[in-house]
Amino acid sequence: MTRLPDGRAVTIRPLDASDADALVAAVEKADPMDLRRRFMGVPPPAWFLVKQLMRADGVHDLVLGAFDGAGRLVGVAQFDRPDDEPTAEVAIEIAKDWQHDGLGTAMLTALAECARERGVHEFTATYFADNLPIRRLLHDIGHVVTSGYESGEGHMRLSLDEMPEAS
C-alpha cells in the first residue's frame, strides 16, 4: 500500500492477464486528451492494449498498475525494451481525478526500482513538446541526461542510477 501526500492510498503492483477488464474500464473512462497525450495521437483500441499486456514478460516489458481502495485501476506505468540493453522506453497514464497528487511520481519511482532490478539503467521518453506535466514528472524521478525538442516532440533520457532520494 502506498499513501499519497493527500492521504489517499493505492496499491501499486504488476499487471497481468487477470487485469484485462480493469485495463479496458480504465481506458474507457480516461480523459480523451490525456489518452491523446499518452499515445501521441489517437490511442489504439482497448483490445490492442490488452494484447500488449498479455505479452508483457516482466523483464523486457513491465506494466505496473495503481488500484484505489475500491479496486479501480487509476494509473498505469510501463517500460518497454526490445532486448536486454540497459535502456527502456517509459510511459505513464494517470486517471484525471488522481493527477497532481503524487501518484505519477510514486508509480514512476516504483517502476524505476523494478527496472533497475532487471538491469535497466536509463529511461527514455518521447512526448508532445507542450506536455509540461510529463516533463516535470520525469525531472522529478530521475537525473536528466539529455532533453530536447524537435518538430513538436520532446524527448528525454534519464539515468536511473542517479535518482533523487525518495522522500
Key features?
Aminopeptidase; eight-stranded mixed beta sheet; 8 strands; 32% helix
Question: How is this structure best described in words?
Answer:
This protein is α+β, with helices and mostly antiparallel strands. The chain has a single domain, classed as 3-Layer(aba) Sandwich (Aminopeptidase), CATH 3.40.630.30. The chain has five helices and eight strands. It has helices at residues 20-29, 32-39, 46-55, 103-117, 132-141, and strands at residues 2-3, 9-14, 61-67, 73-80, 87-94, 122-128, 143-150, 153-159. The chain has an eight-stranded mixed sheet with strand order 1-2-3-4-5-6-8-7, with helices on both faces. A hairpin with a 2-residue loop joins strand 7 (143-150) and strand 8 (153-159). Helix 4 (103-117) crosses helix 5. It is globular. The model has no long low-confidence stretch (mean pLDDT 92).
